[in-house]
Amino acid sequence: MDEKRRTLLKTMGGTTALGALAGCISTDGGDNGGDGSEGDGSGDDGSGSDDGSSGVDNPGTATLWTDLADAEDEAMSSYVDDFESETGHTINKEEPGGELDQQLDTAIPSGEGPDSWIWAHDWVGRFAVREEPPFLYDASDDVDTSLDSYTETAQQAVQFDGELHGLPFASETVALFYNEDMVDEPPETLDEMVSIMDEHHDPENGEYGLSYPVTDPYFVSGFIQAYGGDIFDEANLEVTLDSDECKQGLSALETLFEYVPADPGYESQIVAFADGAAPFAINGPWEIGNLQNEIDNLGVTTLPTVDGNNPRSYSGIQTFYFSSMLADADQSTVDAVTGLAEWYTTNEDVILNNAEEQGYIPVLSSVVDDSDLSSDVQAFAQQVDHGVPIPSHPDMDSVWDPLTNALTNVFNGDEEGDAALDAAAETIRENL
Question: What are the record's GO terms for cellular component (predicted)?
Answer without folding.
Answer: ATP-binding cassette (ABC) transporter complex, substrate-binding subunit-containing
